[in-house]
Amino acid sequence: METLGVDEVGLYNQENINEKFANQADVVINAALDGSNPSLISDVIKDGGQSASVGAAPDLSAKPNATFEHVKPIDAKHDQIALQKLADMLADGSLNVKIFKELSLTLAGVIEGHQLLEQHHAPGRIILVK
User: Fold this and answer.
1) C-alpha span between 6 and 94 (Å, rounded)
2) DSSP string, 40-99
3) Which residues in 58-77 are b (16+ Cβ under 10 Å) and which e?
4) What is the pLDDT of residues 13-69, one digit of tens each?
5) How many Å apart are CA 9 and CA 122, to the nearest integer?
6) How many H helices and E strands in the chain?
7) pTM beyond cutoff 0.85
8) Does the structure show a pLDDT above 60 at 4?
9) In this predicted model, what pLDDT tens digit does every residue of 78-111 receive, in sequence order?
10) Alpha carbon distance 63, 49 (integer Å)
């Protein structure tokens, strides 16, 4: 953590990070697309803090000096460039993705995959294949 300049880490799946860091954060970056914690930013940011998220804008009315920046995908052209770069990195071995389980692209496979995801213990990615 020290090499990252981090004082303390919150594990959202093991503790209530909204309470743990209430009104303490100078900077909050929320990269979770699932929206499972919509009040995270407004709960943990200090008045005067800065925040950014790929999700919905938080209600910062109680912290009038806090700022928010909505981070959005650029466009399809840039997404294509990024995806091609990832594919190239996978092909040349410079990017490794740990695969935990391959499931069939069927209703049963999708159900099993969701059940595994809900457990939050997979030591790698769960993928669906034809």
Assistant:
1) 27
2) HHHHHEEEEEEEEESSPPP--TT-TT-EEEE-----HHHHHHHHHHHHHHHHHTSS---E
3) bebeebeebebeeeeeeeee
4) 788 989 999 999 888 887 766 666 778 899 999 999 998 887 788 899 999 999 998
5) 20
6) 4, 5
7) no
8) no
9) 778 888 888 888 788 887 778 899 999 999 999 9
10) 9
Q: Both tokens of residue 53?
A: 């998220």
Torsion sign, CA atoms 65, 20, 9, 73: negative
Q: Which two tokens stand for residue 80?
A: 């294509």
Asked whether 54 and 31 are in contact (CB, 8 A), the reply is yes
The CA distance from 82 to 16, in Å, is 34
